[in-house]
Structure prediction request, 968 residues.
Amino acid sequence: MRYLPLTAEDRRAMLAKIGAADVDALFRDVPKAALTSLSTFDLPDTQGELEVERALSKLAAKNVAAGAAPFFCGAGAYKHHVPSAVDHLIQRSEFLTSYTPYQPEIAQGTLQYLFEFQTQVALLTGMEVANASLYDGSTATAEAVLMAQRITKRGKAILSGGLHPHYAETVETVAGLAGVVSRSPVTPGSAEDIVSLIDEETACVVVQSPDVFGLIRNLRPIADAAHAKGALLIAVVTEVVSLGLLEPPGAQGADIVAAEGQSIGNGLNFGGPYVGLFATREKFLRQMPGRLCGETVDAEGRRGYVLTLSTREQHIRREKATSNICTNSGLCCLAFTIHMSLLGEEGLTRLARINHAKASALADKLAALPGVELVTSTFFNEFTIKLLKPAAPVAEALAAEGVIAGVPVSRLLPKDKSVENLLILAATETNSDDDFQALANALKEVL
Amino acid sequence: MSMNNQGRPTGTGEAFPASIATISGDRGLDHEEPLIFELGHGAIGVDLADVKVSEARLGGMRRKGAIGLPGLSEPEVIRHFVRLSRMNYAIDAGLYPLGSCTMKHNPRLNEKIARLPGFGDLHPLAPQSTTQGALELISQLMTWLTRLTGMPAVAMSPKAGAHGELCGLLAIRAAIAARGETRKRILVPESAHGTNPATAAFAGFTVDEVPAKPNGHVDAEALKAKLGPDVAAIMLTNPNTCGLFEGEIIEIAKAVHDAGAYFYCDGANFNAIAGKVRPGDLGVDAMHINLHKTFSTPHGGGGPGAGPVVLSDRLAAYAPIPLLVASGAGLRLIEDMNAVPDGAKPFGRMCAFHGQMGMFVRALTYMLSHGRDGVRQASEDAVLSANYILASLKDVMSAPFGDGPCMHEALFDDSFLDGTGVTTLDFAKAMIDEGYHPMTMYFPLVVHGAMLIEPTESESKASLDQFIRVLHTLATEARAKKTERFAGAPHLAPRRRLDETAAARKPVLRWKPEPVKAAAE
Prediction:
């Protein structure tokens, strides 16, 4: 086996040193009945690199990659161009094959990029501090709700109807254990009246902007109403590129920001791994979940970085920790940090403007088709249209025509008949005018 | 000094004193590197058009202020991150004996396959007719995981080991609720990973610690004595965190089941027994599998991980959505709590979408490469290598449970350092100067000054022998009170010991532009 360096000769010599007759002697604590033979496992035997690559390439070829068709899916995961330098750098052995930086003297590379990542996230979201990432946007949102419950010592969380339904389900699963999670009504294309739901028992209000339908929300009035009742505003962002063009949540009074960072540096990967961004105000720092990297000095007074405030974390606090989270999303953070460094201020704001311009052009083109109505009057790079018939079969029919048209809302809200004609489409810098024309032509045919 | 015929010196030159300060502050291949924010100068690392946009569809929410990001060109960005990378230790560069963390070889084929556009560039909500190959891959991985563990079902969506623990406990909670019972207590051995009690508390249970016996095994009698009608589950790591197989496990599982409770196994150490022992045969009800440990998806400086959870018949019905089912038209994801097949009662959803697909691809590539025989051999080699280290060092270091064989990791305590003034921390930091990453220190908590060494199956005998020689010499010198290597180590790393107390006392968690920083101080 090409990955195993020990030879039969080595194994014999090592067993002799140990004084064991054979390797099974080392498994002597295992109950006899539980020690199996190889034939117990109905699985294939070892294969060479060529054979494995052939078999798995065949599976990959059965899928339609986003880059292989006119493609318009968003709803929490976005197709963007990732510069070649990003993937080259994250595959360097020193980044790819290192562990959590628990030995800071020989992990300054990881620690410094985490410090840079935290700074980038704080700047983008307009918040004071950010952690070194959580698993993804949905789990970051759930952690934000738990954090708000800890800070306010209240149990009730109110979720906007415009919050991505997968995020809402994730929050309900985790935060519903100790508190009450309620969802406000789904109102595609308009902002619901969430303010009237906030009361003295409310720990937090969770609002996504742009929301799952693409609509841009004004968070300031919600923040003010929440604060007036002693509750917190959690702002959710699933398309982080939008922060290059839109007012950041921190400038609108958000107390915690939970965001999905996949759009910067990370591929679609069929849903994961992604990178959860998590930022808050300095006064809530000690209630924050996840790893934090901080600046310090070494024995010779040189600047360096360490993981810090770990008294919040499970390996120190055990059952009293702020979260059970152990890992972060290290390599995905690195990809984010590199891509963001390449973009810089000018690059990110240009990218955001291109995305909005593309989506606007597509929305105009589609809204001009008979039987298509634009539902979202404001949006960043993603909007919702209403068709005259259910959107799911339309999307399947378009897929058969070679166009991946978007995400039918019924995929996210299968019980709600009122949304079954709605289709969410995203347009990014990767889409061309030819893509738009192909979609318009195919849609005309199918409708 | 000799010269060649153009007068160019060809000798090795005079020795350069190590203490001399360089003009640049850099030293040969070791460069100091500022923060990216200190390097920005208004350049740009991408070529994107400068388009204008109308305000019409922004709802008055256009950004008013600048973000504050630095601007650099591509070569500058590449140099920055390459220089950072060179300050890191990595398994590709040397033995990485972190006990419990399993730093084994990360095959590059796995990276290549994960980047095939059909996997890496696939949207999670694309029409399912266009993602059948991805669903087939997940299905194949599920088959491997269930057959290797002897368990009937597996929940794929948890994103890391701790997330898998939460998934398992939520399934247990749902199963107990379905029986119309409330059980609030979870038994956790004191040697457990910190995530176990943290997860139990996170899932709304109270934690009751079970002591360890002097031989490093869980005290089965104490555990049984704690069982009762309010106990929901035990969380046991097997092989345990002392690197020992819990021999009484079948008996413990039976007692747990007789008491109406469930057996959660922390699968962090499955890499010692994969292909040899099936947790299902031991009476396990739920176990997460760290794909980044046992199946070698890269640790990436601390993630991303993946933590699928195998489930027994008693818990399978409660697996979270999404569920993967075979239908006439191929494979299908069930993403709706109310549209699940008969008998399924999912407790909820762990995250958006379907789990860590990028890690699934790498893990299946690893499994197909090894095959069942290679997986078994890898476990045997990992156990053999750990025992070889234990046998080679137990005379000079102190093995608290010395005589018996260990599993995939060798545990030492600090009693061999008694009276030397050298601590476990000093010993570990001295290893850095010798070119090694330290072992896991001060864990498990049941052993004083613990040093937990996990060599994995990826080291050659020559590599193990060199490592043993270094540790043997360090231990011998420490015992002889020759302590100069230990005092203030490391001396040869990019940084000396860092002041963690100062970092925590006055946290600086981000860069700030100078004027702001001055105002804050």
